[in-house]
Amino acid sequence: MKKIVALALSLVLALSLLAGCKSNNQDGENIETGKNNKKEFDSSKEIVVVTREEGSGTRGAFVELTGIEEKDGNGNKVDKTTKEAITQMKTDTVLTTVAGDEYAIGYVSTGSLQDTIKALSIDGIKPTTENIKNGSYKIARPFNVATKHDVSEITHDFIDYIMSKEGQEVVSQSYIAIDDNAEPYKGSKPAGKIVVAGSSSVTPVMEKLREAYLEINPNAEIEIQQSDSSAGIKAATDGTCDIGMASRALKDSEITGLQNMEIALDGIAVIINPNNTLTDISLENVKKVFTGEFTNWSDIK
């Protein structure tokens, strides 16, 4: 008898749960009542700041362009990113962290944007290719490659390909080409190996350039080592790689002994969780969030 009663209760519970599930659509709206049961974003909650590691070209460009980097009394540049920020070592972990926390805010290359997060407009300007190219979107930076002045034949040929019509078309699939009127590739397709190292932001487009180049020059071997911009420039300087990648302009202290070249333009998008109701933020408030002056979402007007 007890088993029959227990079974009956279990059946009733299951039916009630099923009815509850069916009464709500994917957006949280109750089909019967028309009311939305989806949890509303609580703007009184604390902002979870997500940043990149020191040495990251994305971080270097971001703190400079937003004014987070300031000069101290001795004229030295100081990164004022809040100590409470969560530091992530790669672009994909920033995306994952923000996608998994509705109160998080971070920043990534516009070429890395996914539908798991939402990119904010800055002072009313969206981070689109057109706005980055015409200069109206202010958080943008160049992608650079750096080499010694004397490079191998294969290294020279690969760079020629990157800056050719074909190479810039590869760049434009995800980023913004430097030269829309580049000449077609006319290289000699030599054999040899190239080691490319540096920025995790530049790495995805460099991998696509490698793939496209190897299709026309199967005699080449290209190894890509992902790290950050500072490490890439140091490797090029030390000669441990042939091409260093940097997702920012080179510093004066890094230029000695190297030649550098812009291969693409890229914006840096300020990203939030899709559940967040914010759509636009001022450049001034971006600074206040990432320096810790603003600590709650309700601070952002």
TrEMBL record:
Keyword terms: Lipoprotein, Palmitate, Phosphate transport, Signal, Transport
Q: How does it sit in the membrane?
A: Lipid-anchor
Q: Does the keyword Transport apply?
A: yes
The family line of this record is:
Belongs to the PstS family.
- Tell me the function of this protein: Part of the ABC transporter complex PstSACB involved in phosphate import.
- Kindly give the PANTHER family that the UniProt entry links to this protein: PERIPLASMIC PHOSPHATE BINDING COMPONENT OF PHOSPHATE ABC TRANSPORTER, PHOSPHATE-BINDING PROTEIN PSTS
Quaternary context: The complex is composed of two ATP-binding proteins (PstB), two transmembrane proteins (PstC and PstA) and a solute-binding protein (PstS).
> What's the protein called, per UniProt?
Phosphate ABC transporter substrate-binding protein
Please give the organism: Tissierella pigra
